[in-house]
Amino acid sequence: MKTNPDVVIIGGGLAGLTGAIHLSKKGLKVTLIEKSDYPRHKVCGEYISNEILPYLLWLGVDVLQLKPTNISKFEFTTQNGKMAKTTLPLGGFGVSRFALDNFLYQKALENGCTIINETVTDVSFDNNTFTFTVTTQNQLLASKTVLGAFGKRSNIDQVLSRDFITKKSPWLAVKAHFSGDFPDDVVGLHNFKGGYCGVSKVENNVINICYLADYATFKKYKNTDDYQQNVLYKNKHLKNVFETSNPVFEKPLTISQISFDKKLPVENHILMIGDTAGLIHPMCGNGMAMAIHSAKIASELVLDYHNGKIASRELLEKKYIKEWNKNFAKRLLMGRFLAKTLTYKTITNVFVAIVASMPSLLSAIIKQTHGKPIAVE
Predict the structure, then answer these.
(1) CATH number (domain holding residue 102)
(2) Is residue 278 part of a domain?
(3) Helix (H) or strand (E) holding 17
(4) Please, which residues bridge with residue 33 across strands?
(5) Band of the pLDDT at 215, cuts 50, 70, 90?
(6) Do 78 and 352 touch, CB atoms closer than 8 A?
(7) pLDDT tens track for 53-74
(8) If you placed Cys at 149, which of 15, 43, 91, 316 could pair as Cys (CB 3.0 to 4.6 Å)?
(9) Residues 277, 287: contact at Cβ < 8 Å?
């Protein structure tokens, strides 16, 4: 079966669903292809900066219906337990991907989007007709525009022969939900040997714990429990969180081979959004908001292209690359710099000692990794 939507979106995470809602709100025929069912849990820090609230409300997505936690404070700790605290410049909220993705999915359906539960096996672009052909197990779709929202690592990356997919990565991520006693208004980032762990509350009084670990260190242990007890517990704050909490999941979710190599915002003429365009480093602390924001940028440009305000595909791609870099390049650079710098124990201890006595400095650093409230015209 062959269909011809105005836009095909590959991947139904935050960026893909947001793009689908935005474009359908403006009257375009959107088909989104997602291999997994909703609702589902995903490996994610589950903290979102308030910078995207005006945009979500413009989309008709009232996340307050999900009863997220209101987060206003940030804590950073070192391996040896030293802590620095500050107030978040904009604040944010905690909500699970289980709840949020499903909420966005329902909104996309309400807007008239077609959502196909299949795996994309091929994407090609015809330079003569400027048309994409997207192939799944059972369907063939032709469209003038494709948005890539297939996440951190996908079979589509291999189909497109993207550079990063051929390289081995030393990182894996682990995420689980817990019940226990943790402040509603705090997001914590805790350093341990070989990684970082984020802790914050989401809806229903649930604690989300998500950490990034160096695989070389991780593989020395039999399982996540052994690793956590022998490595993460060296940070007394993390040890306290784990020992005073009870797991909600039967077992943690994991993702391996996470690449922090630079990714291009446009490849094979596909506009990449969210993690597909450039993996949001955990030291930016704001990947969910950046994914949503990238969908807004791409959607606005696609609408201009569809309406003739952008005269050519070449110009569309150039404008998207420019806007991506304008909004995210410095934030990603800062995240990578902080991550590299804070792998050194001595530097980390000195850094925390300084910012512990100067919370305004820590707040200023956080501003470099976060954006301003997104303007909606």
Answers:
(1) 3.50.50.60
(2) yes
(3) helix 14-25
(4) 10, 116
(5) confident
(6) yes
(7) 999 999 999 999 999 999 999 9
(8) 15
(9) no
